[in-house]
Prior knowledge:
Blueprint: H1 3-15, H2 44-58, H3 67-72, H4 76-91
Helix pairs in contact: 1-2, 1-4
Amino acid sequence: MKDNERELAALLITALNLEDKRVDDVDPAAPLFGEPGQGWGLDSIDALEIALAVQQKYGVELRAEDEATRRAFASLAALADYIAHQRAVQAV
């Protein structure tokens, strides 16, 4: 797992109070949303919490109506890449 994925996993675990998850056990390619038992098993309320935590920590806004945001929510790896890209764009 990349450092930015590890940092993001820790943020999500804390923000969502996922006491049963450990950073070292997270598969960065696992889907964030969907049926319980498949990937993270998160729901739309969790998406709001993630958006808030990401904005507070990284200054990156995640907008529900944005197709890029929907793709970013596919997995931890996709979300970490999206955040890194948005931060690079903001720095220019």
